[in-house]
Specification:
Distance between the termini: 22 Å
Radius of gyration: 12 Å
Number of helices: 3
Helix content: 25-40%
Bound molecules: FE2/S2 (inorganic) cluster
CATH topology: Arc Repressor Mutant, subunit A
Largest sheet: 2 strands, antiparallel
Mean pLDDT: 93
Strand content: 5-15%
Number of strands: 2
Number of domains: 1
Structural class: mainly alpha
Shape: globular
Low-confidence stretches: none
CATH superfamily: BFD-like [2Fe-2S]-binding domain
């Protein structure tokens, strides 16, 4: 059995955060959750860096909390 979390970064997420990967997490700017996860996996370790790469949080910022949660889980 292989439990290496580096194999699939999604394994680091609790089930609730794996839902709706192909839906907008940032509805203000139409940014898919999977695109935000990819940005984090590819090195964006702060909300600001995720914003630079994806424009998520660039609206009224209502998705910031969820993005912080994703960063905490994926960068742990
Ligand atoms: S949903 Fe992302 S800024 Fe509003």
């Amino acid at each position: 059995m292989n439990n290496d979390p580096d194999k699939n970064p999604l394994d680091k997420l609790p089930p609730i955060l794996k839902k709706g990967l192909n839906k907008n997490l940032c509805t203000c700017n139409d940014v898919l959750k999977i695109d935000i996860i990819n940005a984090i996996v590819n090195g964006a370790t702060t909300v600001e860096e995720v914003q630079k790469q994806t424009y998520a949080t660039d609206g009224i910022g209502c998705c910031k909390r969820q993005i912080k949660q994703l960063i905490e889980c994926l960068c742990a």
